[in-house]
Amino acid sequence: MTLDTQFLTMIFMVLGGLYLGIAKDTFRRFSPYWKNKRFINYAMEICFWLTQTFLLFYVLFRINGGELRFYVFLACLLGYAMYQALASALYKKVLEGIIRVFTAIYRFFAKIVRALIITPIRWTIRLLLASFLMIVQIISTVFIFIAKCIFLPIIWFLKMVYRILPDNMQKILHKIAGFYSIIKNICSKWMKYIKFKRR
């Protein structure tokens, strides 16, 4: 390698160390969100360090063809140490400020979406449901009224005919009505028993 290439390698590896410190602090800031999930925590750690290693080696490859020398590691370590000593505290404060800004923006847009989209949809669904129930209630009321108008004269006529019938016929009709009620009770008991067995 020429001296220019070595100098560029040193500069970029120092910058790479600075970048590694920034990336590490950023990763550590968000790691508590998945820290309790052991498998995800291990997977994220492995992916993070593999990604950073790949990026640093790619930069080194673009500069000197990927030649690893001892001073390359020293330069990277120097950049990381410079970041930890001079810029780590400041960057963490800046990162917290950026996170607060993005959180506020997210909450603002979430409120807008909730106010302009979600809440109107909820009220529309409730209005449609209330309208549907009201229509069903009106239809059922009208249907019951029509049924009463149709069947009440028939019931009155049957009562008049029943009163005219002889006593023997009335007794026979009483027996038929009693038999019908017994059959109805038996069927209802069997239906309840079948429903209970299905559970």
From the alpha carbons, calculate the radius of gyration and give it in angstroms: 42 Å
Tell me the major beta sheet: none
Contiguous runs where pLDDT drops below 50 for at least 5 residues: none
Alpha plus pi helix count: 4
| Structural class determined from secondary elements | mainly alpha
Assign an overall shape.
Answer: rod-shaped
Mean pLDDT: 82
Q: Let me know the number of strands.
A: 0
Strand content: under 5%
Portion of residues within helices: over 70%
Q: Output the helix-strand order.
A: HHHH
- Please give the alpha-carbon distance between the first and last residues: 82 Å
Task: Spell out the key features of this protein.
4 helices; 199 residues; single chain; rod-shaped; mainly alpha
Structural overview:
The protein is an all-alpha fold. It has a domain at about 5-95. It is built from 4 helices and no strands. The chain has helices at about 5-30, 40-65, 70-165, 165-199.
Please outline what is shown here.
The protein has 199 residues and is an all-alpha fold.
Q: Any chance you could write out the topology, listing elements then pairs?
A:
Blueprint: H1 3-30, H2 38-64, H3 70-164, H4 167-198
Helix pairs in contact: 1-2, 1-3
